[in-house]
Amino acid sequence: MLALVALIVVGGNAFAQDKILISDDGRMKHDAKPTVDIIRADWCPACHKVEPILDELKAQYGERLNFVVLNVTNDETSKEAAMAANQLGLAKFFEANKKKTSTVAIFDAHQKSLFKTDYNYSREAYVKAFDGAIASHKM
Question: What is the pTM assigned to this prediction?
Answer without folding.
Answer: 0.78
